[in-house]
Amino acid sequence: MLRSQFEEELAKLHNQFYAMGNEVLGQINKTVRAFITHDREMAKEVIEADAKINDFEVKLEQKSLEIIALQQPVSTDLRTVITVLKATSDIERMGDHAAAIAEATIRMKGELRIPEVEQEINKMGKEVRKFVESVLDLYLNSGNGNEEQAYEIAAHDEIVNHYFDSIRELATAEIRKNPDAIIAGRDYYQVISYLERIGDYAKNICEWVCYINTGKITEL
Question: For residue 198, what pLDDT is reported?
Answer without folding.
Answer: 98
